[in-house]
Design goal:
By secondary structure, the chain is mainly α. 55% of the residues lie in helices and 11% in strands. The strands form 3 sheets. A 3-stranded antiparallel β-sheet has the order 1-2-3, covered by helices on one side. The protein has a 3-stranded antiparallel β-sheet with strand order 6-7-8. Strand 2 and strand 3 form a beta hairpin. The protein starts with 5 loop residues before the first strand and ends with a helix.
């Protein structure tokens, strides 16, 4: 009686494939009149299969054959090890090996563990990484390290584009997170090749930063609200408009840490989200708000804050949806409109990349362009008025000559 099984790669064992229907590539294990099949996860048309060469006549044939070889070699190496150690083959020990191999080679498990235990990211960033992980789980075609192939990256990208809830910016960020863990796997020698080599992902256009104009700020400041709690929400938002603090940094603001220098109140802190330093000077209106609350801001949860900002906007008659981050955008555009240089604003905002700050500069440029459009319109109106005036003069002159 044989002590060890025979393993071989087979194609379309159920004979279901046709010229237009794909068949499955599997690894067959035969031992003591019992067979077991292990799926490679690869489906191809009959014209793309060769009994000796395996996958042929496809642009991704090398990637697919590497995946097939990996699965086949894993099983053959296990059988050889048993032979060398003179140990018998059993289906139970084979199943255990497959389970261990699955865990050791699981890219999903690797990413899950890393996201869970990383201490170099803040919780908001961790939540974004978890969203990426959930999308990868839903895709369900990249589970193990040997699934990290260029064709699968393209399939993943197509799958993401097929989901209406994902914008191009979100899709690009999911690829960015994937690359982080792919590069970690390469450093740990869990994979040898980077499937993203030669693949360029469109980053998409950044969403337009929404902000309040000076007129809208004045309207909001002069709005009387029905309750003290809503008044506090308005004051928190106005404080953001005059400091540029994001909600996370607003919630940890401590006036005791403010430095007085040359009669000015200087805030030198580190952004909670990125760990980047920022420097701002508290403007008089920001100081007024602090005095109102004895220099301790009445912080509420971000969810409640944004919820009540909608009520504040309605009470003020604003047609813009107020959010906690809009205060930060308003501060940035006010600074640029007042002549603050982009490089200086980047330090004030705590931006890790000046390209982020330049997005606000584009907004200011648009404001300037709109102002010129208004001037051009006025200029056109003046030209028409002057033209009409000249015509009236000619008519008067003609009438005068007719009377003579």
């Amino acid at each position: 009686m044989e002590r060890y099984p025979i393993a071989k790669i087979i194609f379309d064992r159920r004979k279901n494939s046709s010229n237009t229907k794909e068949g499955t590539v599997e690894l067959e294990i035969y031992f003591q009149r019992k067979r077991k099949w292990i799926s490679t996860g690869i489906k191809i048309l009959p014209k793309h299969w060769h009994p000796q060469k395996k996958v042929i006549n496809r642009p991704d044939f090398q990637d697919l054959n590497l995946k097939i070889d990996h699965i086949e070699n894993t099983v053959l190496n296990f059988i050889r090890k048993l032979m060398i150690e003179n140990k018998p083959f059993t289906w139970s020990c084979f199943e255990s090996m497959l389970e261990n191999e699955k865990n050791e080679n699981s890219f999903i498990e690797f990413v899950t563990e890393r996201v869970k235990n990383r201490n170099d990211i803040v919780e908001s960033t961790r939540k974004n990484h978890l969203k990426f992980l959930n999308a990868l789980l839903d895709f369900n075609k990249i589970r193990n390290f040997h699934d990290l192939t260029k064709p699968n990256i393209f399939r993943y990208d197509e799958w993401l584009h097929g989901r209406k809830k994902y914008t191009q910016a979100t899709i690009a960020s999911y690829h960015k997170y994937m690359k982080i863990y792919v590069n970690e796997a390469i450093r740990k020698e869990l994979i040898q090749f980077n499937p993203y080599d030669g693949i360029k992902i469109d980053r998409g256009k950044s969403s337009i930063r929404k902000f309040l104009t000076q007129e809208e700020i004045s309207i909001l400041e002069g709005t009387h609200l029905a309750t003290a709690s809503l008044d506090k929400v308005k004051d928190l938002f106005m404080f953001q408009c005059y400091t540029g603090l994001a909600y996370a940094d607003l919630s940890k603001f401590d006036f005791n840490q403010v430095i007085v220098r040359n009669g000015k109140y200087v805030v030198h802190d580190v952004r909670k989200k990125t760990g980047e330093e920022f420097y701002i000077i508290l403007l008089p209106k920001a100081i007024e708000i602090l005095k109102k609350y004895d220099y301790k801001l009445p912080i509420i949860t971000n969810q409640q804050y944004n919820l009540r900002l909608k009520i504040v906007a309605d009470a003020a008659g604003l047609d813009k949806r107020l959010t906690s981050h809009m205060g930060r955008h308003t501060y940035a555009t006010m600074c640029l409109n007042s002549g603050v240089k982009v490089e200086v604003l980047a330090d004030m905002m705590g931006h890790a990349d000046i390209k982020t700050t330049q997005i606000y500069a584009k907004l200011v440029n648009s404001t300037v362009e709109n102002a010129y459009d208004i001037l051009e319109e006025r200029d056109s109106i003046l030209q028409i008025i002057n033209m009409v005036s000249d015509i009236l003069k000619i008519i008067k002159l003609l009438l005068y000559h007719q009377k003579i």
